[in-house]
Amino acid sequence: MREIKSDKLTSTAAANWSTAARQAQPPPAFDPSLVQSIYLTELGGGSEQPAALKRVMLLEVSQYLENYLWPHYEAGAASFEHVMSIILMVNEKFREGVPAWTCFEKRQEAFPDFFRACLQLKADGAEGQAARPMRMHERTSFLIFTINLFQSLEHEMVRPLVLKLVSLPLWRALSPARLQLELHALPQLAKHWKLLNKKEAKASKQPGYVPPPQRPDTRFVPGLLNEFLETLEQALAAEEAEGGAPDVAMAEGAAAGGRGGGQQAGRVQPQARAYLERFLELLIDLLSQLPTRRFVRTLLDDRAILIKIKLSPVYQRPEAALYRQLADLLQ
Length: 331
Prior knowledge:
2 domains; about 60% helix; 18 helices
């Protein structure tokens, strides 16, 4: 308790989002630069390493999410750091086993906008905007948040938004031959597909129309699969120099592997391994729930995801024991 009281974050919380501060007249004004500073210095945003758990726990104890991040979230105006800070605090609530979505219920009307902002972090060029590149630990945190979303289908606020990511439009990412094969085998589904195309043709005549391949919700799961396969190819890196940046070492290791005629030496980078393990956890969750399984499974089969997982050099590495167990469970 003495450490908590003397910590600088406690002083910051007391001055900006504590109960006493919010009841003051006038209350402290929201400072976006403070959110950015906390994300960069305390939540790992300015480092190649993830945030220290103690710092995240301290922010959670101070009710950073409930009293500052969410009340001051504004659609279209929130920065990357603001959205990622909310994601990290939600992950911490899930880790601690406390209700994570309760504070969002006070402003349910803003939650769909926040959800779209989360998708936009991975949109990379969708709707004319380029996504900010994420560090490896940020990618992993985003995956954990996605897992938490799909494990919250019982929540009425979360369910309709999340299920859109794994609905029939997801099949636009299938290869043409596989799509025709599936529709031929399922005549009733083929009718829904034709109706979906008719609606798109009608909507395309409206101003501001965005084609399905460019929508963040339609390209979300395929984009995650592409990111996973890219990481899988680059995960086996040369032994990094002391103090070297993991992402740099990963890239150099992948390049060295290409020069070596396919023989990649070194070890699986710990952050890359954590990302790969979390992604397999996400796939297992998607295939384990009936509402999310139907269309995702076909896409995974079309892209031969399981085959690529098992044929990758990572699968044979001794430090990837958990990765192999998750791959077997996925199979």
